Amino acid sequence: MPTDDPSGIDSTSVTPWLLAHVPGSEAPFAFDQIAGGASNLTFRVTDGHGRKVVLRRPPMGHVLASAHDMGREFRIIDALWPTDVPVPRPFGLCADEAVNGADFYVMDFVEGSIVFDLADGNAVDRALRPIMTDSLVDTLAVLHTVDPDDVGLGDLGRKADYCGRQLRRWKRQVDEGSDRDLPLVTELHDRMAATMPGQQGAGIVHGDFRLDNCMMSHDGSVAAVLDWELCTLGDVLADLAGMVMWWGDETGVGRLSETPTLAEGFGDASHVIERYGETSERDLSDLPWYVAFQYWRLACISEGVRVRFAAGVMGETDRETDEYGDSITYLLERSKAVLDADTLD
Q1: Angle formed by the axes of helices 237-246 and 287-310, to 10°?
Q2: Where are the chain's structural domains?
Q3: Are 317 and 228 in contact (CB under 8 A)?
Q4: How far does Cα 306 stand from its chain's mean position?
């Protein structure tokens, strides 16, 4: 691999692949990493004309292929490209690891901005903030109208019992992976399992839909939905509830207290729910259950991260471990409060 290539790119092999799969492209290509770490690596690729595309590949030294399935990500974007769901134009998937050491795919580079945190939210033009909110909600509603069978994604995952499977999966992770007793995890799990609403059909569930997982255009609309790593089929109200949870809480802990939508002008979660309900035919009366579920689910996921910090495998300090512990306590208490109240008011 040439010494001037960024880690994860072999330009000698990747260049001819790009020339064959990206129409009108011209060598040489410059590769700049724009996201990476434990998640999938994302590179901005600029050709000899100055045209940009994006290359995605698994992190270096990854072990679990199922956690970084490039073929799955590409398949989802490729299937949604002809629909009204805004996604980057897909160019091709390379499943030959001899080319770059791992599978990768290439898609168009979408111009826009990521509104990641509260500082970014406050930096958005006030006139654009409500436009961003409505475009975000409308985009999720459009995704949920897509019939997975119609776009060739009918076998992407099991359609039935989505929330039941999620409850079992994350409870098992805490039971098998935690180094402490968390009785509230079990209590909430049992209550939610006993009161789980019936699933209203099956649709495409993004899995982590929120403002900072979308590329926003200069006019405030969603230019592209990104980060399809957790996408599957199932109960789409879990997506809406996740967005409601990530709308943020000024009294919260961790990232939930720093979400961009807490900036004045984005509106509150009640507007999100009302806007979604105007276009969706699904009954939203059980949405508090789903929001409680999402708080609980995030607590379980965070507990796994806390355990890795505590074991020292993340290379961090006790401060991060304590912060995750505080966040987990908050998430479980919020889940219980929403479940007890059975309302989001």
Answers
A1: 60
A2: 11-108, 110-154+206-236+249-284, 161-198+286-345
A3: no
A4: 20
Query: 41-46 and 222-225: which strand pairing?
Result: unpaired
* Residue 345: count of CB within 10 angstroms of its CB: 5
Helix (H, G, I), strand (E, B) or coil at 52: strand
CATH number belonging to domain 11-108? 3.30.200.20
Strands 41-46 and 232-234: unpaired
Q: At the fourth CATH level, which superfamily is domain 110-154+206-236+249-284?
A: Aminoglycoside phosphotransferase (APH), C-terminal lobe (3.90.1200.10)
The pLDDT confidence band at residue 66, using thresholds 50, 70 and 90, is very low
Do 11-108 and 110-154+206-236+249-284 fold alike per CATH? no
More confident residue, 317 or 249: 249
Distance from C-alpha of 76 to C-alpha of 299, rounded to nearest angstrom: 27
The Cα 158–Cα 2 span in angstroms is 43
pLDDT digits (tens, 9 = 90+) for 316-332: 555 566 677 789 999 99
With bands split at pLDDT 50, 70 and 90, how would you rate the model's confidence at 61?
low
How large a percentage of the chain has pLDDT more than 90?
81
Q: Using the Cα atoms of residue 103, residue 109, residue 110 and residue 116 in order, give the sign of their dihedral.
A: positive
Given a contact cutoff of 8 angstroms between Cβ atoms, the answer to whether 97 and 103 are in contact is yes
Residue 258 has pLDDT above 70, yes or no: yes
- Residue range 126-149, pLDDT digits in tens: 999 999 999 999 999 999 999 999
At residue 36, does pLDDT exceed 90? no
C-alpha pair distances (Å), 328 with each of 184, 287, 290, 333: 11, 22, 18, 9
Burial string for 274-284 (b: 16+ CB within 10 Å, else e) reads: ebbbeebebeb
